[in-house]
Specification:
Elements lengths: L1 E5 L4 E9 L2 E6 L2 E11 L2 E6 L2 E9 L6 E6 L2 E8 L1 H4 L6 H4 L3 E4 L4 E6 L6 E2 L4 E7 L2 E6 L4 E6 L6 E2 L4 E5 L1
Antiparallel strand pairs: 1-2, 1-8, 2-3, 3-4, 4-5, 5-6, 6-7, 7-8, 9-16, 10-12, 10-15, 11-14, 12-13, 14-16
Length: 168
C-alpha cells in the first residue's frame, strides 16, 4: 500500500506490506523490516534490528486522517493521505450513496476554483486546483452530480485531507 505521511514541515512517501505480524516498509527511500504488536489500543511496539520502540497514535476526532504520534518522548502531528482516494480515482464509501468530498492530498495553496455551488458536473470534471510542492494538481469530481458546497477560496492555504467541495 502506498501512502503519504504529512507532518508539520515535511511530506514522506510510505510504502508497506503487512504479513503475519510483520511490516515491510519503505519510508522516504529507507527500507525497514519490523515486527509489530498492539498490546493495547493506540499503543504500538516495533521491533527492528533487536531494538524495541514504543509509539502511541491518537486519532484526531475532527480530522479522521490526522493523528498525534508520540515516539521517543516527542509528539508529532501526522496526517496519513491515500493519494489514490483523494484524487477521486477510488470508490470510497462516501461515493457509494452518490455523495463525494473533494479533498486535498497534501498541504498547499488554492490556485483556482473551477466550479461553483449549484453547478452540474460530470465525472472527471475539474473542481479545484491546488498547488503543493511546486506542482499544480487539479482535483476532479469522482462522480456525476451537482456541486453542493465549495469551501475552497482562491489564495487560501489548505491542510492535507481538508474538504474543499462536496458533490451529490
Amino acid at each position: 500500500m502506498k501512502l503519504t505521511a504529512e507532518t508539520e514541515n515535511s511530506s514522506l512517501p510510505i510504502e508497506f506490506r503487512r504479513q503475519d505480524g510483520r511490516i515491510s516498509a519503505v519510508i522516504d527511500g529507507r527500507e525497514y523490516d519490523l515486527e509489530v504488536s498492539e498490546p493495547e489500543p493506540g499503543v504500538f511496539l516495533f521491533k527492528h534490528e533487536g531494538r524495541i520502540f514504543e509509539a502511541t497514535a491518537i486519532r484526531d476526532p475532527v480530522a479522521g486522517s490526522a493523528f498525534t504520534v508520540s515516539l521517543k518522548g516527542r509528539e508529532h502531528s501526522v496526517s496519513i493521505v491515500d493519494p489514490k482516494r483523494l484524487r477521486g480515482s477510488g470508490s470510497g464509501d462516501s461515493q457509494a450513496d452518490g455523495f463525494a468530498e473533494i479533498k486535498t492530498a497534501m498541504p498547499g495553496k488554492v490556485v483556482r476554483v473551477l466550479a461553483a455551488e449549484g453547478d452540474s458536473v460530470e465525472k472527471g470534471d475539474g473542481i479545484v486546483v491546488v498547488e503543493a510542492m511546486k506542482m499544480q494538481n487539479e482535483l476532479k469530481s469522482p462522480i456525476t452530480g451537482t456541486v453542493k458546497t465549495v469551501t475552497a477560496i482562491e489564495g487560501a492555504t489548505v491542510s492535507a485531507g481538508e474538504v474543499l467541495a462536496t458533490i451529490e
